[in-house]
Every structure is written in structure tokens, then in C-alpha cells.
């Protein structure tokens, strides 16, 4: 093991989101000596070499004991010696199987404020999304706007259905915020992305603090989709149970229920013989509004980039697994985009706004707990059931 101060700055970051190395924020030699001799040890992590890495130092060596327990011990020692000046990371070695330890200045992890205040951008995106949600939930209003003959009554008629979709999206975001607060994490305000096809593509929510581990990432990422899905499905079930008589509801072809395996299965279960192939059925309009929210919820669970599905994939299968899922998902969405403008628009948005990489977790080595695996898999499976078509005939 070399006790000299590392002079080489390695490139190709396993610590995404950390600023590029500057001489003024390198960790001093005396601090490195303290970390090597008084913080690391045979009971936690035995370092064999070190290299400057961006705004900190990467240590290679041997992990002793459970990574979670070792990380807790080392973080406590680091806090006692230096307060909140440094952050410890356990990460996977992109070039090997042994975990790496990284010490980074906390100042390099802080996000700089943008030229435009967050509240202004969030409000602007939210207002446009509100308009597109209203238009998506009222085809008559869309037509009236194109002909210049819309009335205030048409706007009022769109309010109940728009509020249903909006409530599902807000429940989704509330799920994230409650989970973050429960774990002591911080997340930013959601940027709702408008969509002409669906009303909105949901919200982009940034994690603004360092998450502790993959279990915490899984909980925060999965809580939003699961909360939104529960509300949407509850509204759909109630809407199906209160199906109006013909002439009082919205007349639709039974074929629309072939668009979703989950919704189609629920509809057939609750409607029974009333749902027949090639027939027309009267339904409560809020079913389609809740279904729209459920679909928005589901596409955010596609395992790609920094959206919920990508975060869940990283939590369950690590950074290498996340990278593979992202590549496959982009390719599949790109192919689907040939036939679907929704898929094409979504993959373009993800590539330009949410392609990643996901910011590092304090401990990326320890796998998530069983309950967090169940939550993450449930969110991904729910998305699949919503997006896959119902393949059986309504006999």
C-alpha cells in the first residue's frame, strides 16, 4: 500500500453528478493520511491503493464484513473527525468485482442554482400541462378551440374528468414526497411534462440529497407509481361498478378494453356478459380519465434513464443492470416509435431530459431488502400489465 498522495486523476466517472476535479478542492495530503490510518481499518475496509477521482479520492482494497455495517462505521468515524466536510461512497468497480470506497467533498455534491428560478419553471410547465390535461379530457373542447366556437360551459364539463387525471398524477408525486420524508431525503418540485396525446407525461422529480442505499432508492422510486396506480385503479373499479344505462354514459366500443391487459381483465371481471366482442357499451367517463392517469403512471415505470423505472432498475440490479436496461428500453421504444407517436415522443424526452446517469448512492454495494425488492418488482410488473394488450376475446 502506497502512503504517498495520489497524483493521477482518473477519468470515466463511477460517481456521476460530481464536479470535475479542481486543484482547489482536492483532498489535502494530511486528510488522506488520517483517512488511511485512523478511519479505514481491518474491521471495515482495508485500502491497498488510491487515486484522485474528480473532487475526491477513490480507494481500492478489500471489504471486511457486511458493506452496510462497514459503511455505517466509516461514516461515523468520518463525521467525528471532519464533521460534514466529506461524504463516503461504496460503489461497484466498473472494471472489476471488488467494491470501491470513495471520499468526496460535500461541496462538490451541491447543485448550483439555475439562471431561472425553479418555482418559475415548475409553474410554467405545470400551467401548460394543466391546459393539455383539460383538452385531453374533452374532445368537444378540442374541436371547439379549433373552430373558435368554444364556450365556458364546455370548460366546466371538462373539469371533473381533468381533475380525475390530475388527482392520479398528484397522488403519484405525493407518494414520492412521503417516501422521501420518511427516509430523511430531499427531492425537488416536480416538472410536469405536457403531452397532447395523454395530457401529460407525468412529473420529472430530482433527488437533491445523497440517498443512503439501494433500499431507499427503491422505496422513493416505487412509492410514486404504486400510490398513483392504487388511486387510478380504485376510480376505475368504482366507475365500472356504477356503469350507467345506455344514453346516460359515454358510449364506447368494447374493443378499447383490449388496449390494456390489466384494465381489460378488471372490466371483464366486473361487467361480465355486458362486455361482448364487437359491442358498444355505456361507461362512466371518469373511467377513461383514470385510465389515462394509470397509463401515464405506467410509462414512468419503464426501466430507462432517471425516470422511476430506471431508478427502480438501479435499486434492484445495480448500476450495471440499470445501464443494460436503459439501452434495451431505448432501442425498443425507438422501434415502437415507428408505429406510435407516444413512444417516439417519450423516448426523445427521456434521451434529452432524463437519460441519466443516476446520482451516486452512499452505499451502492448492499442489495435492497426483501420488502423493497417486492415493491420495485410490483411497480415494474404493474406497468407491464397496464401497457400490454388484453389478448383474449370478450366472449
From TrEMBL:
Instruction: Supply one GO CC term from the record.
Output: chloroplast membrane
Q: What keywords are annotated for this sequence in UniProt?
A: Chloroplast, Hydrolase, Membrane, Metalloprotease, Plastid, Protease, Transit peptide, Transmembrane, Transmembrane helix
Where it mainly occurs, coarsely classed, is: plastid
Membrane-protein topology: Multi-pass membrane protein
Which residues are listed as membrane-spanning? 220-242, 325-353, 373-394
The Swiss-Prot or TrEMBL record describes its family as follows:
Belongs to the peptidase M50B family.
- What is the name of this protein? Peptidase M50 domain-containing protein
Q: Which organism is it from?
A: Selaginella moellendorffii (Spikemoss)
